């Protein structure tokens, strides 16, 4: 029986890595294309681009409620449903979007699937890790996902640079990747928790984790929305540039993510998030003032460097998941608290881009990144307040 469990565990971990690889491929196709798609096809303004983040991020705010509706299912099955919804949204954007209104409709559906899956990825990854190796496991999963996205970036770069690839083709390929990930999750063994999970979970003990998510939501949307927009509107960069930058970030991420996972296990989440915050301050200043300090082509190369460094630092979000895993009262708290954290960060990220767009229009894009630098300093202060104990799965009081 024990041998069968080991075989099943290895099989499930392989399938989960494969699912993550397909999702990495989808990400490599979709991420470098979306902003240029909005600019090239619909020519939207900075304010409209910022305002679009409200409907795009609304499913993230509601994720704790959508997870609650499916609470009777194991995590793996909820993840399966999430990827089917994601794939449908991608196909809709590619083939059923005659005008911008329909783009928004299908984008919201895609967002429902993407955000529903986000907390589950960490939760399932933790469940497939041995005690004391959670950071290592999440680092391995992230490395495979990052490596797969390399192929997606290559396809976009080669396709747009040499073969006049259409955005419709990009969305179709990304949609098929979502379906393939769903198939992998379907083949995994669903493990029902022996501990009762709560639909909504907000505990005073986890306040610092929630606050870290608020700051992450603000930081995330400033960079996801306006960093690409700086390259598009200020430096006039095409979609192939984003594919190349994605390639560089992906290659670096293959090495960086596993090292980051080991650093979390060895040095702890506090140091990792502290260093992340300090780095973000300099990245913010680089985005905002590259044109002022750069001469000729130096300015654009400085922004390229900031973009790649920023892309790598997004991996530090795994430190928030491992931090929570060490402070939760029981393993049953993990998924609902991750979902609650995602909901809280989206309370911020839904509104920040709209006001950021107004700030860009009224005062200039530099002020957006000055605001982001202040957020990074707040994140630094929060990191210094972190205290961690043993991972939840190692606490003897939690034995069933």
TrEMBL record:
Gene Ontology MF: a single term: transmembrane transporter activity
Chief site of localization: membrane
Pfam families per the UniProt record, alphabetical: MFS_1 (PF07690)
Keywords: Membrane, Transmembrane, Transmembrane helix
Protein name, as recorded: Major facilitator superfamily MFS_1
Localization (cell): Cell membrane
Annotated InterPro entries: MFS, MFS_trans_sf, Sugar_transport-like
Membrane topology: Multi-pass membrane protein
Record's GO cellular component terms: plasma membrane
Species of origin: Desulforamulus ruminis (strain ATCC 23193 / DSM 2154 / NCIMB 8452 / DL) (Desulfotomaculum ruminis)
Transmembrane segments: 12-30, 58-73, 78-96, 102-120, 141-160, 166-187, 208-232, 238-259, 271-289, 295-316, 337-361, 367-384
Signal peptide: none
């Amino acid at each position: 029986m024990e041998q069968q469990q080991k075989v099943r565990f290895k099989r499930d971990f392989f399938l989960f890595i494969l699912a993550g690889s397909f999702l990495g491929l989808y990400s490599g196709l979709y991420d470098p294309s979306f902003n240029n798609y909005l600019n090239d096809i619909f020519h939207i303004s900075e304010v409209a681009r910022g305002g679009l983040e409200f409907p795009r991020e609304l499913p993230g705010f509601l994720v704790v409620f959508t997870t609650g509706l499916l609470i009777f299912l194991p995590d793996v099955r909820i993840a399966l449903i999430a990827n089917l919804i994601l794939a449908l949204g991608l196909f809709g954007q590619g083939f059923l979007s005659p005008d911008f209104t329909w783009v928004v409709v299908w984008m919201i559906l895609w967002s429902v699937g993407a955000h529903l899956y986000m907390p589950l990825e960490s939760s399932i990854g933790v469940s497939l890790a041995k005690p004391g190796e959670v950071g290592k496991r999440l680092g391995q999963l992230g490395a495979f996902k990052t490596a797969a996205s390399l192929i997606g970036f290559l396809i976009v770069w080669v396709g747009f640079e040499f073969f006049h690839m259409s955005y419709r083709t990009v969305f179709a390929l990304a949609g098929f990747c979502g379906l393939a990930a769903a198939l992998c999750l379907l083949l995994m063994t669903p493990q029902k928790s022996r501990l009762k999970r709560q639909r909504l979970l907000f505990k005073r003990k986890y306040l610092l984790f929630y606050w870290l998510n608020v700051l992450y939501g603000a930081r995330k949307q400033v960079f996801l929305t306006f960093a690409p927009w700086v390259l598009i509107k200020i430096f006039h960069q095409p979609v192939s540039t984003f594919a190349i930058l994605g390639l560089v970030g992906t290659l670096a991420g293959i090495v960086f993510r596993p090292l980051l996972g080991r650093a979390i296990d060895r040095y702890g989440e506090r140091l990792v998030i502290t260093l992340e915050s300090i780095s973000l301050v300099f990245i913010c200043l680089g985005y905002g003032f590259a044109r002022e300090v750069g001469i000729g082509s130096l300015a654009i190369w400085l922004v390229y460097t900031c973009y790649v460094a920023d892309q790598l630092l997004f991996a530090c979000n795994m430190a928030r998941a491992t931090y929570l895993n060490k402070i939760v009262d029981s393993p049953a708290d993990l998924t609902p608290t991750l979902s609650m954290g995602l909901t809280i960060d989206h309370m911020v990220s839904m509104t920040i881009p709209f006001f950021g767009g107004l700030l860009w229009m009224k005062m200039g894009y530099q002020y957006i990144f000055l605001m982001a630098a202040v957020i990074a300093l707040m994140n630094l202060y929060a990191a210094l307040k972190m205290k961690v104990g043993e991972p939840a799965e190692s606490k003897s009081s939690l034995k069933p």
